Amino acid sequence: MDQVLLRCLESIDSNQRSIKESHCFHSSALMLKARSRREWRKDRPPALTRLSPDLPEEIEPRKAYGGHKKIKAIKSNQGLYVWNSLDVELECPILKVVHNTANKDFNEMGVVVKGTIVEVDSNPFKTWYSSNYNNDKSKEGNSSLEHLLPYMERGQLYAKITSRPGQVGACNGYILEGDELESLFNTREDLRLSLQNSAGGQ
Fold it and tell me: Which single residue of 54, 121, 143, 162 has CA 20 to 30 Å from 94?
């Protein structure tokens, strides 16, 4: 290390007043003074946002790089969900965690992360649908939502979280339809059977 530093110093012209003014001097060869890690660089444990239907939401802001802020959701019970085929976005309560590919234990713990499939209350969509579609038979006849109407009448829909609760402090996503809903049923057959039993009982 001393020899490297000596060679660097020898390469500096005598006319230059300091090391910083030299264009051929590489500071990477020096042992710089250690500095403490900045707050935005510190390693933090995962947020592990918990679903708490009966408790108020709890969030915790913190500093981020560049003077920005991040919001960590500690407890959550609702979010904004988009029904793409209806082109509508409504706020719905989250009922429970259905499927989570991040960790198999997250289902029992009720942890919500990006990509988690949750069961949401469909009453907000049911109210909107009844006021916008039931009075317009042409729209209802051309609609391809028949496979989701039983779920909505039942009072619950399946949605996928697309936001990052530990970064933005919200559990937002979209309602599952078509192939994504069928893929969920292939993974969780009990969801399909429970719907059939409920429809048969009625």
Answer: 143
* Alpha carbon distance, N-terminus to C-terminus of the chain: 82
Reduced to 3 states (helix: H, G, I; strand: E, B; else coil), residue 61 is strand
Tokens encoding 150:
């039983």
Q: How far is it, in rounded angstroms, from Cα 17 to Cα 153?
A: 81
Supply 195's token pair: 């719907």
Q: CB atoms < 10 A from the CB of 176, how many?
A: 21
| Tens-level pLDDT at each residue, the chain (202 residues) | 556 555 655 655 544 555 555 555 555 555 666 777 777 677 788 889 999 988 888 999 988 888 888 999 999 999 999 999 888 999 999 999 999 988 889 988 999 999 999 999 999 999 998 888 765 544 554 345 777 888 888 888 999 999 999 999 999 999 998 888 888 888 888 877 554 554 444 4
Query: Listing from the earlier edge strand, what are the strands of the sheet with 58-63?
Result: 50-51, 69-76, 58-63
Look at residue 180 and give its three-state secondary structure: helix
